[in-house]
Amino acid sequence: MIRVYIERYENLDEAKRRILDKFAMEQSFCGSYYINYDAMGKPLLFSDGEQCGEISVSHTDGVVAIAISDESVGIDIERKDRKISDRICADIRQWTRIEAYAKWTGAGVSKRLIAEDLPQDLIITRKYGDYYVSVCSLCKNNVVTTLI
């Protein structure tokens, strides 16, 4: 299962903390979760000094989206009216799919990736208000979203 949390924020670190606290409460977990980063900047979910799951974080324009799963996961959120060059991709919805896939693979965005046909069976895209959110995972059909 993938848990996706979306929250508006004024302070990004505080919003991340609120989301992790909500996740802990939903898991009936008495400890606390925190995010650490590997050498390439990929976020990792930890508790009590041990990595305890997979996490992906995206933020734009005062909104943060976090995906937490037992499986590798990638997420991207963008305003639906954000302009993107048609030399890069067709539209902002497609861009969120590219970003989520790049985070899932850990390879990052590249010209080669942008030119590839993305594996449609791994990515789900939804519209939430003024935003598109894409999630990439092997278990994309089991996504639970919480708007905070």
Summing up helix and strand content along with how strands pair, one would put the structural category as alpha+beta
Count every helix, treating DSSP H or I runs of 4 or more residues as helices.
Answer: 3
Q: Strand-and-helix sequence, N→C? A: EHEEEEEHHEEE
Mean pLDDT: 90
Biggest beta sheet attributes: 6 strands, mixed
Terminus-to-terminus distance = 19 Å
**Helical amount:** 10-25%
Query: Low-confidence segments, ≥5 residues, pLDDT <50?
Result: none
Task: Tell how many strands the DSSP assignment holds.
Answer: 9
Please give the order of strands in the largest beta sheet.
2-3-4-5-1-9
Rough shape? globular
Amount of beta strand: 35-45%
Oligomer: single chain
Mind telling me the C-alpha Rg?
A: 15 Å
In short:
Helices cover 23% and strands 41% of the residues. It has 148 residues and is of the alpha+beta class.
